[in-house]
Specification:
The chain is mainly alpha-helical and 167 residues long. The chain has one domain. Helix content is 69%, strand content 0%. The chain has eight helices and no strands.
């Protein structure tokens, strides 16, 4: 099976634009958490009533684990967002971002019969913006946007030069 790696400029531009939008969103979410004194994920985790509710309750019950989760969440969002924006480790950034968003989704999914005390931005049934953004990141992970526009281009060139010198 041969791979077709020919994309139009419009296709690549659209994918890069999507990568930048999601990168900005995740970066901003991370920075805002960093800037809010005393921010914690405990409020979000207390709302968890679905697949990950047991893990959420365990995290809340242990201050050390909660602090670690808060740190990883904040800095993970920042690193993923930056990676997507500058096009560095784009595939890893996209997959990591999708997995993080799926964790959010599996904690607080819009499922019939589950009601949350915190109002949501809209009315959803199973599909939410979080799930859509996670799916978009999985799409970005399978397209080479970072190797076309991004720092991944420079990394690839460096590796090629290093490989040629080693031969």
């Amino acid at each position: 099976m041969t791979e077709n790696r020919t994309f139009t400029n419009l296709q690549l531009t659209s994918l890069v634009f999507l990568r930048l939008l999601i990168g900005w969103h995740l970066l901003y979410e991370g920075i805002s958490k960093l800037m809010i004194p005393g921010w914690s994920s405990s409020g979000f985790l207390r709302e968890s009533q679905w697949i990950m509710s047991g893990i959420a309750k365990w995290i809340i019950s242990n201050d050390g684990v909660l602090n670690t989760v808060d740190f990883l969440n904040t800095w993970g969002l920042i690193a993923i967002g930056l990676g997507l924006i500058v096009g560095l480790c784009t595939r890893i950034s996209a997959i990591s971002g999708a997995l993080l968003l799926l964790i959010y989704y599996f904690n607080n999914a819009p499922i019939i019969g589950i009601e949350y005390s915190v109002p949501s931005e809209g009315n959803y049934l199973i599909i939410s913006k979080t799930l859509i953004e996670a799916a978009a990141l999985f799409v970005l992970a399978v397209f080479p946007t970072g190797s076309v526009i991004g720092l991944d281009v420079l990394v690839a060139r460096f590796k090629n030069k290093k490989n040629k010198k080693g031969l």
